[in-house]
Design goal:
Structural class: alpha+beta
CATH topology of the largest domain: Nuclear Transport Factor 2, Chain: A
Helix content: 10-25%
Order of helices and strands: HHEEHEEEEEEEE
Number of strands: 10
Number of helices: 3
Largest sheet: 6 strands, mixed
Strand order of the largest sheet: 2-1-6-5-4-3
Length: 178
Amino acid sequence: MNKDSKKIDLLIELFIDSIKYATNKTNLSIKLSSLLTRHFTYNINGKLGDYSGKKSIFAETLFSRQKYYNNEPIVIMKNTNMIIFNFLYKTYKIIQTLYIDNFKINYFSEVVTIKKCTQKGGQGYSVMVEDTPIAGKPVIRSYYDCCRPVFSGGKADSGYYLDVDGNHLVVQPQYRAY
């Protein structure tokens, strides 16, 4: 590992430590002061709000968003002048890009998007019309996509639904075919 890559690794470590573990705005400002150039600017866009400005208000902006940086980021080093951090927070994907000049951060960019759900299959729920209702409530059972429930009877492509709109003279729920 050469001297330049050690400096970049240290910059990455200090930046992540600063944004994740600062105790207040002043503490964050002090931690970031040695990492930012004199003419530093930043731009934040996306689902969590839009902010931009200069070095003087950067720490305040980041500290108010600190909870979004709790998870360990995926770090991608494009070259010695650009580092990308990918954070995930609940349904948000946060991409931060640091532009480096002489081993200091010259420009910070953050884009927040909603991450796409990649779940396929999984568990579903169905009203089991063939089971006797319990205490007047329909029986609901879980199933996996591989084993969907089969309702028999009636025409092809037919099924049953719980008739919640109709007038009920009895306590038990009524089912209708479609």
